[in-house]
Amino acid sequence: MQQNYLIAVCDILGFSKLVHQKAPEEIKDEYFGYIKKSIYFAMNKDHFPVKAPTLRELKMHDELAIAWFSDTILIYTLEDDENICKNFMQTIGWFIFMNMKLPDTRLRVGISYGPAVMDVEEQVFIGLPIVEAYNLEKKQKWSGGALTKKVEERFGDYLANLNPVESWIVPYAVPMENGQRENLLAINWTIGMHQRYNFNWNKDRAEPNEKEISEQPDVIEKWRNTKEFHSKVCWSCFPQLNNGIIKPPGKFW
Length: 253
Description:
Elements lengths: L2 E10 L2 H7 L2 H21 L10 H4 L5 E6 L2 E6 L4 H19 L6 E13 L4 E4 H12 L4 E4 L1 H12 L3 H4 L1 E7 L5 E7 L22 H6 L1 H17 L20
Parallel strand pairs: 4-6
Antiparallel strand pairs: 1-3, 1-4, 2-3, 4-5, 7-8
């Protein structure tokens, strides 16, 4: 049955490289296992499971649903409701955050809203918001997530009047292809509780070397943009950004 949904298209960045480097069973058990644990935590927000849940177990949520196709994961709402929207944004924020420190499972997410058919039994998912979320996801040049204007039109006022630690949303000039920026609402994954994080290039070096810069310009651009976002919005690592006070902004723009 067609109805309005909030839909997130989540892409596992660097999946093609992972497939070339690791055996399929290792990807399934280790990497996808961790992703399923992080989805479970993000959706339920109670504990991080020791054992990876099954996809069937992940689908038993009352407000949110999931579909998984290789390196693309759909997370969507089951009802068109503001409180469920809040839970949805928090879920996507936690999901991005829980994978941010692991370069092999970092995520890029596009979110849209509108009428669609999400038939779990037949595994048929059709609708313009899926296409819009997918297109927005692909355009972004970072690890993170952003909302289309349709989401802002439907839920913007509601989200703007929540405390930012409840909405997990921040207005931001989101980095796009060809060096462009677009003023959108972004998922503020930095709200996830953490100690000061320097966002180094890898565990050995703060910055990429010249060879890496030459051979991986696209990856490095995404890393720099993600690091920049963290430095501009993270209250945990940069308390001065918040002046010690967290309060609803009233409106985003």
